[in-house]
Amino acid sequence: MKQKFFKYQAQTTPHPLAMEVSHANGCYIYDTNQNQYLDFVAGVSACPLGHNHPKINEAIQTQLNKYLHVMVYGEYIQKPAVELTQLLAEHLPKPLEKTYLTNSGTEAIEGALKLARRATGRSEIIAAKNGYHGNTMGALSVMGYEERKQAFRPLLPDVRFIEFNNESHLDHITTKTACIILETIQGGAGFIEPKNNYLESVRKKCDDTGTLLILDEIQPGVGRTGRLFGFEHYNCTPDILVTGKGLGGGLPIGAFTASQELMDLLMDNPKLGHITTFGGHPLIAASALATLKEITESNLISDTLRKEKLFRKLLKHQLIKEIRGKGLMLAIMVPSAEIANALVLESQHKGLILFWLLFEPKAVRITPPLTISDEEITKGCHIICSVLDKIAASHTN
Ligand SMILES: Cc1ncc(COP(=O)(O)O)c(C=O)c1O
Fold this sequence. Notes:
Layout: H1 2-8, E1 21-25, E2 28-31, E3 36-39, H2 42-45, H3 54-64, H4 79-91, E4 98-102, H5 105-120, E5 124-128, H6 137-141, E6 159-162, E7 177-183, H7 198-209, E8 212-216, E9 240-244, E10 254-258, H8 260-263, H9 282-297, H10 300-314, E11 322-326, E12 329-333, H11 337-349, E13 352-353, E14 355-356, E15 363-366, H12 374-396
Parallel strand pairs: 3-13, 5-6, 5-7, 7-8, 8-9
Antiparallel strand pairs: 1-2, 2-3, 4-10, 9-10, 11-12, 12-15, 14-15
Bound molecules: pyridoxal-5'-phosphate (PLP).
Residues 104-106, 109, 132-134, 183, 187, 216, 218-219, 244-245, 254 line the site of pyridoxal-5'-phosphate.
């Protein structure tokens, strides 16, 4: 299987972890050599209820027995998609009310950018340095990391970059700006939170200039930061909210939500303003609905902040310089990329899954399922500290 994996399946790095998965359950993934791994990554924040969750499985099974794809997006009434978008609206502040469901996060970003241009008639887009929003051409155009995009130029014109958390750069937002797109908490950059009411200032500048604010909550959204959506921490409501990843409960999804007035622009002048075959797919919507119900009806969200405290208490080590992030979106900062690599790889050998962040080589991600237990947190943190002990010892020898 390994040989075939490298021969037939296109790779994105020369050295993928290449663990062959047998099955997964709760917070554990099992390989085909019968090894068990505690999952501190949750499919890179995409499995908030862990693996093989009975409520998600039941929702998928029930829908599977009814119908799968029957028509392109938006033509037929399909209950799972309607109920999912309704539940989202019920949990979002006004004016966020109407949702377009897509196949992935990056496609939802494309839709949001298109909507902003359509709504304002302006072309300029402002994005943040070190921001990540996906990998299709539009999303890549607003990614603030030149090294990973220069080979694909030319990209979208009229995109400008400002520094996240730097209020003086907000003067770049003018009446020529269609939208500013930001991650509520920068992910790839190393889980950087907005500071000093930054998002409130962005909101005000947008209001003053008629610019739309797009917040990308594809990673922090759906309970991970201790609120259903990260923006709830920062007293700032976006004009367009983009979600994805964890919303699908392990199936591929993206979504963008705005006011009825804004969203209705997609059906007029031109009509079919954003179309997709599979967006809002009934199986995926059923999985997402079950996920969102479980997250909003249980104490998982409030427990997230308690679990964050436990992580912070247990992860005390001379090689941990800082722990960034909020809730169960945490990044351990170590002194070098070499140590970060060693920590990820050695922990895997000890039965704990950790992973890197896109643009910050000294960071190691901890984004476990929200369902993780205190015992599992304790077990994983002990592995991290023992691996760091070993690394520290080898560095002093
Ligand atoms: C903040 C953010 N935006 C957009 C995306 C792209 O989502 P997808 O990979 O589903 O296209 C990601 C995925 O990692 C993300 O973390």
